[in-house]
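Subject: Sanity check before I submit

Could someone independently write out the structure tokens for this chain? I want to compare against mine line by line before I put it in a report. The sequence has 626 residues.
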Amino acid sequence: MSKSYGVIVVGGGHAGAEAAAASARMGVSTLLITTSIHHIALMPCNPAIGGPGKGHVVREIDALGGLMGRIADLSAIHIKKVNTGKGPAVQTLRVQTDRECYSHLVREELEAMDHLDIYQGEVGEILFHSGQIDGVRTISGSTFHSHRIVIAAGTFLNGVIKVGELSYPAGRQGEFPSVQLAGTLREMGLSLLRLNTCTPPRLDRATIDTSAMDLQQSDTEPLCFSFVHSGRVCSGSVIYITRTTPQTCDIIRKNLHRSPLLQCLSDSSPVRECPSLEDKVHRFPQRENHLVFLEPEGSHSREVYAQGIFTSLPEEVQWKIVRSIPGLERAHIVRPAYGIEYDIISPTILTHTLECRTIPGLYFAGQINGTSGYEEAAGQGIIAGINAALALRGEPPFLLKREESYIAVMIDDLVTRGVSEPYRLRTGKVEHRLVVRHGNADVRLTAKGYAVGTVDSKQYQDTVIKRETIQQEIDRLSHTLVSPSPQLNLLLQKAGGEPIRNPEFLARLLSRPRVTYRDLANFDLNRPYLTPNIIEEVETEITYAGYIERQRRAIQSMSRLENKRFPPDFDFSSVKGLSSEAKDRLSEVHPRTLGQASRVRGVTPADMAVLSVLIETHNRQKKADP
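---
Independent answer below. Compare away.
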């Protein structure tokens, strides 16, 4: 069997699904190869989408025409706005999905796409001739040709499951690892690193006593991730919250030596921002009450995901841990927890398009790049898929800047700083959070998606109308005066502000703390009807106008460094005046701009001064040359 495609995507997880969908939407003949068609976009860990940082990425994927936001809405059984006690820069959504429904809907959409074929098989070899990518060969011997390949192998490269003293090869529990592909990548000259992560046990809901637990209901206001959907209220599913006890911690301490992935014992690096329970007990011995969230896996399943009990301890220890927790004294474990070690590539070998610098035409996306989480994987997938398709067509690459999106921050962090542990995106890693909010992702990115062909005309026109409507309302409020009255001044005083004695613009009143757009309705008789999401953006733009303008000035200042580009063949190792560490790091990463060089680990202000002078000298010589 031999067939040719424009783009081949290897791996059917969240990264692979988004990469294949993006390429196909752009009209490129695309093949998605996965080891199991039934496991496309599977959620092997948490059945949730979103949360701080991650929810922003989901919105950005949707703004670019991706799958995740729409499918999360359609499969949602519980939805909540998080960080509501904080400012709009960090507020976002978190959706609890029906795990099987999510996977089924993604597969259904992929199967219905034009220009996309799906093939079940395991890729064992990447065809590479005369310095050019030429396709893939499966372990069964089928050959598929393409000069653009996206590798989205997840945790399957040399994957090894570990549960206490038990250890066996697997990509995920119940699935075979990808051993031959890992060997092929090494033969192509790529160095591989080793990371690890672990999952919690799944429990039978019927055996859990929730009577004394705290509960977290779904929000009562209509909410949704996708800009193409109307919000809805989810009811019927509840997340319960319990905590570990001193007994739990004692059980773990007595068995720390049996944890194969404990940070101080393992040769691979764990997820520091989502550690195992034994890791938390080891690192924070003074804490004995760790939160445990009991999250439903789906509407038609009794399985419950015990978030917070991530562990690789032996099964008999897992039973003791679970039954030491209030409400779980009689809980039945449906699926034991497990740890997994796996290979990744070093992401510093990639460009910002996620193409390998040393092997043109080969792209990497998802956990194979050292990230952790469905959202991070999907964000990389859509960027890799777009760029693979653009490169095939001979068009300029699709590049996002740090000040434009969370996805860009993640990719820049990966290719510039590399990873020593699984990377997880947080709001704290984003410099200009008010500019790249959850609510304005479509205004920021949809036009870009439309330009490359991943967004249809209706979604684009809806975004244009939204942007114009927001600006028109801001302009109207900025030019509409309201006269002082006892009712208005009472409202302002209740909000902790001073009353007004002269007519004031509505925008000035709205900019006051604790005064909302809804509060001013009775004093704004000519206001138009606006949807809640537009009202939210109007409020944010007016209330935080000063902060937003400050961040935009900072972006302009930083852009001066980003606009200073190194020549493509710039030899950092020969630059006099650079520290040895800076030479090594810069030669490894090969930054495109002075701004990116400033974010490379080990580069000091003194190194930056040397590089700045060199770029200025190079630019003057370039202008002087005829």
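---
OP: Matches mine. For the report I'm noting this point. Residues 457-479 form the longest helix (23 residues).
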